[in-house]
Amino acid sequence: MQETCENWDVSGLASAPQTQIIKNSLANQACEVLRQQIVRGELPPGHRLNIYEIATQLGISRTPVKEAFNRLSHEGLLTIHPQSGTFVSRLGLSQIREVFEARLMLELWSAPALFCGGRWSPMEAERLLARCEELFQSKEDFDFATFAICDRELHTSIVSASGNRRISRMYESVYPYLQMVRVYWGRSRERALRSHREHIGIVDAINRSDSEAAVDLLRSHITGSQDDIIRLLTTDGSGLITSQGEAD
Q1: Quick one: DSSP state of residue 178?
Q2: Most-buried pick from 13, 94, 139, 175 (CB within 10 A)?
Q3: Residue 129 CB neighbours (<10 A)
């Protein structure tokens, strides 16, 4: 007789997977909360994390927090020292260069590809530029958080418009480190304005279907950002980066 699902004894099997799903969900949520606090600079480079405090703040047990620590350590956002604790990772100059090289590779591949992908939205790009323009025209204190969001959405839209989902996933894995770099970079309205003007040129080249100009402007934009952050970290005396290029 052929066995069907009605004949199976499933008593006691439901609770274990459900418990695992709940634990995974809590770990996912803890991971996302901590990731956002790190990339926004609320947990600065070198900050020591207390698992008990975080578990209490999130209203969960230590187990999902520990899992979140392990995941973020695997991503490189946290550094775990078994004898001394868990710390927000610092980026050395060599790591910053690696992040920008990865970004350069992915975005410069995506820019020409988007002309064949058919997913580029001029209206969405113009909306993001207009939102940034409003920020610079505002009489209020400059909203760096909103500018950073628009910046990310614009660059992500270039990669996504290529139509290559693997490239998009690779870019998503790099972007948290780009956000961490902003913590070192500080909050300069002048740098943000220069970046905005460069964005306008990049979008204009794409909208004109000028692939060569788009790639050249994008390369200049990315390498210029890299040069700015490295120059800032090696000359401002902040102590975040040593002369050997590693975190103090």
Answers
A1: H
A2: 175
A3: 18
User: What contacts 172, CB < 8 A, 6 or more positions away?
Assistant: 156
Q: Containing H/E element for 181?
A: helix 165-185
The Cβ of residue 238 has, within 10 Å, a number of other Cβ atoms equal to 12
Burial (CB count <10 Å: 0-12, 13-18, 19+), residue 6: exposed
Q: For residue 239, what are its two tokens?
A: 């102590």
Asked if 64 and 23 touch (Cβ cutoff 8 Å), the reply is yes
Domain boundaries of the chain, sorted by first residue: 12-88, 93-235
Q: Which CATH architecture has domain 93-235?
A: Up-down Bundle (1.20)
**CB neighbours of residue 48 within 10 Å:** 11
Q: Tell me, what's the pLDDT at 23?
A: 55
E strands in 70-111: 78-81, 85-88
DSSP bridge partners of 85? 81
Tens-place pLDDT, residues 189-206:
888 999 999 999 999 999
Give the largest CA-CA distance in the chain.
79
Q: List residues bridging with 233 in a β-sheet.
A: none
Digit-coded pLDDT (tens) for 31-81: 989 988 887 778 888 899 999 999 999 999 999 999 999 999 988 889 999
What per-residue confidence (pLDDT) applies to 222? 95
Distances (CA, A) of 86 to 70, 165, 174, 184: 10, 33, 22, 20
Name the pLDDT band for 131 (thresholds 50, 70, 90). very high
